Amino acid sequence: MSAMGFGALAWTLGTPWLLGASILAALGIRWREDRTGFVAWAWLAGALASGLVCMASLALGLPFSLLRVLPLAALVPFSLVAWRRAPSPGFHRDEGPSKVFCLLAALVMIAATVHVLAANASPVTTNDEGDFWSLRAKIMYVCGDFGDDWRWHTAPERSPIDLAHDYPELNPLLQFWVYVNAGEIVHFENRLPIQFFALATLLMMMSLLGCRVRPWLAISLVVIYATSDHFLRMSALAYGDLMVAAGATLALQGWLRYRESGATKFAALGALGLSIATWSKNEGLLLLLTSVAVLLFVALKVEGSVAERLKRHRRPAAWLLLPLGFAALARGFNLWFGFKNELLNPASDKSSPLGRALSHLPEHSGTYLEWFFRELLGKPAVGHAIILVFAVLLLLAPKRFVSGARAVPILVILLFFAGVSAVFFSGTREFAWYLQTSGRRVFFQMAPAIIVLAASFVAELNTKIARIEP
Fold first, then answer.
1. How many CA atoms lie within 13 Å of 21's alpha carbon, on the beta-carbon side?
2. 141-163: buried (b, 16+ CB within 10 Å) or exposed (e) per residue?
3. Which residues contact 361 (CB under 8 A, 6 or more apart)?
4. Which end of the chain is less congested by CB atoms within 10 angstroms, N or C?
C-alpha cells in the first residue's frame, strides 16, 4: 500500500461508520439488538450518506478542506434525533451468541480482512476497477466539481471508456472520498471502502444465520461463501458487484426483521439496502424494480380492501420512496451529463430492448441454457453449488420453500434473474460476450441472500421433523 497515514486512513473509514451509526440510532435501531449486524449496517448506511455528501459537495463546488469534515457535521443532527428518541417497538436485548460462535466468527473475519488487505499489494490500475470506477473518481478529484471541466473530461465522445457511462456514482464517490482525505490520488487505499462492503456482507450473513440455524452450521455456511471463487475474486477488487450483494443482503435482513417484529425501523433498514444496491450498479435498479413489483403483487393478493392495506402499511411502504429517490438521482445525473446506456441507446440498432430480446430469443436460447448448466450448475466449485442448491429446492419443494417471510425475497430473486436474462438477450454485442464478462458476477450478487433463505428452509424442516419424532 502507499503512504497514506494511519490517521488519515482511520478518519476516511471511521467517519462514515460513525455517521451510519448515528443514522441507525436516529431510526431507533440500537447496537444491542444485533451487535454483529449493527457493525455492518452502520458501515453501509454511512457509506451511502457519505457518498451523498460527496456528491452534494461536488455539485456545490465546496473546497476539499470543508468536505473532509462534512460527514462528521452531518452526524450531529442524527445524533440529536437519536438522543431524544426512545427505543422504538421491536427493541429487545438478546442474550448474544455463544462464545464458540463469537470465536469462530472472529477467526473468519480476521481471515477475510487479511485477504482484503493482501489484495491491496497491487494498485488499482487495470480492469473495470482501474479503467472505469477509479478513473471516474480521479476525474472528480482533479476537476473538484461537476462544472465545465468535469463535463469535458467525461463527454462520451471523448472518454476512453466505451461502456457503462450511465452507471450510478456511489463507487467512484467513495473512492473520491479517499483521495480527498489523502490529499492526493492514491492507488491502493481507494479500494478499501469498496472492499468493506464484502466484509459487511459476511457480518450480515453471520447475523442472519446465527439466529436461524445452529452456530456451527451458520459459521460453516459463511465459510462456504467466503471461500467461493466469486467472493475471493470480487472482494479483492473495487468492483460494484459486492456492493449490490451487500445492499441485497441488507434489504433481506430488513424485510425478515420487519416480518418478525412489525417495526417500521426495519422497513427503513431494508430501504437503505435497496438504496445502496440502486446507487451502486444498474443491476441494483433492477433489484429495486422487481422488489416493488413483487410487493405490489403480494399486496393485491392479500385479503382485505386496498384502502385497509394501505392504511396498515403506509409507514413502512413510504420508505420505498428512499431507494426510488436514489434511482431518480442516478438517472437524473446521467441524463444531465449525457451518459447513455448501450442497451437503451444503441448505436447500431434502434429497436426497443424488449423487441431485441424477443427477436434474439430463438437464436440465443440454446447458447444461454448451455452456459447456465455448464457455468452455474455444472462446475464442481463452492460458488456454483450455491445456485445449484437454490434450483434444487425450487424444483423439489416449491410450495414449502416459497412460503411465509421467504416468499417475497425468493420471488424477487427469480424475477431479478429473469430480468438479467432479458438484458442479456436484448444486448447489441455478441451474446457470448455478455455471458463471459458479466454472467457469473451478476448472478452471484444474490448468493448471500440465497444461502440465508435456503438455510432457513432447511432449519424449518428440521424443526418440523423433530416435533413429529416420538
1. 14
2. bebbebeeebeebbeeeebeeee
3. 425
4. C
3-state secondary structure 64-120: HHHHCCHHHHHHHHHHHHHHHCCCCCCCCCCCCCCHHHHHHHHHHHHHHHHHHHHHC
The DSSP code for 248 is H
- Is pTM beyond 0.85? Reply is yes
Q: What is the pLDDT of residues 125-155, one digit of tens each?
A: 888 888 889 999 999 999 999 999 998 888 8
Q: Is the dihedral of CA 11, 15, 17, 22 positive or negative?
A: positive
Q: Return the half-sphere exposure (C-beta side, CA atoms, 13 A cut-off) of residue 274.
A: 28
Is the pLDDT at 89 greater than 90, yes or no? no
Cell numbers describing residue 450: 440465497
pLDDT band at 467 (very low <50, low <70, confident <90, very high): very low
Q: How far apart are CA 314 and CA 320, in angstroms?
A: 10
Average pLDDT over residues 232-250: 95
Amino acid at 470: P
Kindly tell me the sign of the dihedral angle through the C-alpha atoms of 450, 453, 454, 455: positive
CA dist., res. 243 & res. 279, Å (int): 9
Tens of pLDDT, residue by residue over 409-437, are 999 999 999 999 998 898 877 888 888 88
**417 in Cβ contact with 449 (< 8 Å):** no
DSSP notation for 137-156 = HHHHHHH-SSSHHHHHHT-T
Concatenate the DSSP letters of all residues of 252-288 into one string. Answer: HHHHHHHHHH--HHHHHHHHHHHHHHHTT-HHHHHHH
By the 10 Å C-beta count (0-12 exposed, 13-18 middle, 19+ buried), 79 is classed as middle
User: Which residue's entry shows cell 422497513?
Assistant: 267
Cα–chain-centroid distance for residue 459? 26
| Cell numbers at 398, concatenated | 416449491
**435: helix, strand or coil:** helix
* pLDDT tens-digit series, residues 21-71: 999 999 999 888 898 999 999 999 999 999 999 999 999 999 999 999 999
CB atoms inside a 10 Å sphere around CB 374: 11
Conformational region of residue 100, where left means phi above 0, alpha means psi within -120 to 50, and beta covers everything else: alpha
At a CB cut-off of 8 Å and minimum separation 6, what does 470 contact?
A: none
**Nearest-10 Cα torsion for 56, 60, 64, 65:** -100
How far apart CA 414 and CA 454 sit, in angstroms, is 14
DSSP sequence for 402-419: S-GGGHHHHHHHHHHHHH
